[in-house]
Fold:
Amino acid sequence: MPSPPPDPLPGPPAASDLSSLARELSALPPSCGPVRLIGVDGYAGSGKTTLAARLAAALGGASVLHLDDIASHAELFGWTDRLLEQVIAPLARGEDARYAPYDWRARAFGAPRTLPAAPVVIVEGVGAGRRALRPWLARLLWMDVPREEAWARGRSRDGAEQRDFWAGWVEAERRHFAEDPSRPFAEQLVQQLPEGYMVLVGPVGIPGTDQTLTEGDGPSAMC
Structure:
């Protein structure tokens, strides 16, 4: 009698339309007062804003905070206190947050804007997984694109007008992630595919993982 065929080897996870991830995030316990705060971090140009918008839609219209509105030319990464005071503290009290978004062309902060204390609030931008913010996060997602590829996308998107800004930004981002890495603390890594996304288990999701990994470490095991 012939032997039964061997079990097929496990393949990569299927592309996701983010609905299953949205359900998973909605079921998390609140992390900041009544809010489930979701961080979306990654290198500039990696697709964080697009992911946050699509994930917010999958969540039925979740609130989104763009860290570009909190940072400024003078403080590319020195905005922790402003974020904690204007956003985290009121959300932790169950109140809507009010923050002054920065206008990168006018180089000035604008009129206050309200961020509702919704059941799920997404914070997206470089530094969303910084150590000062992680205690308030229900989940940290890392947009898993190599930094040189992400930076090339960003430069192409912003054009020659922003060439000088990008030269300074790249060095500032290198310093930031060297001093305060986010990827080693991500529960999930997200990769964008031609259609949909692939969600992988991040370093924190692997038992026994040493969380002092560097930003250059390779992808983790898939979920």
Residues 163-179 form the longest helix (17 residues).
